[in-house]
Amino acid sequence: MTSGLKMKSGAVFLLFFLGILPFFVRGAAPEIRTVPQTASAPVIDGILDEDVWASALKFEGFLTFKPDFGKQPSQNTIAYMTYDAENLYFAVRCFDTEPDKIKAAVSKRDDIFQDDVFGLVLDTFNDMQSGFGFLMNPLGIQGDGMMDMNGSLEASHDMIWYSKGRIDELGFSVECRIPLQSIRFPNKEVITMRVLFFRFLIRQSEQASFPPLNPDEGSIMGQSQAVLVSGLKYKRVVELLPAVTHSTKSEAGNGELQRVENRTDISLTGKVGLTSDLTMDATYNPDFSQVEADAGQVDVNLRYELFFPEKRPFFQEGSDLWRFGGAYEDAPLAMVVHTRKIIDPVYGFKLTGKVSPKDTIAAVYARDNLPDDTVDEHPAFTIVRYKHALKGDSFVGGFYTARDYGRGYNRVAGADGRWRRGIRISPRTSASIPVF
After folding, report:
1. Of 287, 289, 296, 370, which one has the fewest beta carbons inside 10 Å?
2. How many domains does one find in the chain?
3. Mind listing the pLDDT tens digit for each residue in 311-352?
């Protein structure tokens, strides 16, 4: 009996020791690389023949993470980064010993994943929670979106940026320019960002990255490279998008065509940057009739209503924040917020961004317009989301959703979070200056 108690006590102590061990085991502090600022902007033509790339920060040492990790890739890759006061500039030389087998096509935006792809993820806030994703095929055709901590890309978020690629006898090269007005970043003199580069070699089913990704470290964004930039110029974002829609409907009656409706709608959508990382959107009577007018869905023998992807511009920015702790990977929580339930708003307001380096907020209020509804023609929707970043990619947060419909309502509030034990951020090797 005494022996059994000792064994149980020993097992409990061992489990306790293993549980707290990650808090005392820490990796070495990551090296932060300083990105040199350029005095002259490169021409975005896909040709890396300008002096600006000779003084840019150079990234090499890509290793595979698929189909196996930590191996030398079959083809070499070198990436570059520089910036000026208003733009970030990236370039890559993707070497290929068989350039005639490079897969590239002139396709529509976000439809490049059947090609060879080079991409980068930019975590401008250094919080390891999410990042702006920019992808290009060898011709410079773009794909973009918001990437979460697990590496999943939310492609509905589109940004304005410029890219060009060329295929040559060495492989292919791509250049891109990312205006600062297209992204959000802290309004500080010196900013620490994180960047992750990756390359997909489609014919080899091979994917490589810099910095190399290690599955033992768990967090993808936590393994990205920290870089230092200074002197970025913040310009307040102010957009006004007025629209006028006129429709005429006629019907045949008594042998002649008669007009039965003559309607003109005026709408206004605006955006203003309250700070460099906090944005307010507002809309009055928006016209969404031309967005996804021909989306196809099969509704045979379904036990649930159809879910259409959100493609309306007003609801897209910040949509990555509607992913909650229970919705990552294979968790059973599918969706808490589905903004397509807001059908035809009379007006709406949205606030998204950072209120502090660790605190993120997203909020939406909309008054819908359902003229044929006998209960409530103007139901109200309220959505509030808050996240506080912890160490690595861990976080805690909360949410509140409400739909007020006549005398009835549906309100949900809850808390969520993600905690990864023993996360390490590995040191990275020093940067070197390329010599052409």
Report:
1. 296
2. 2
3. 777 887 777 777 777 655 555 565 678 888 888 889 999 999
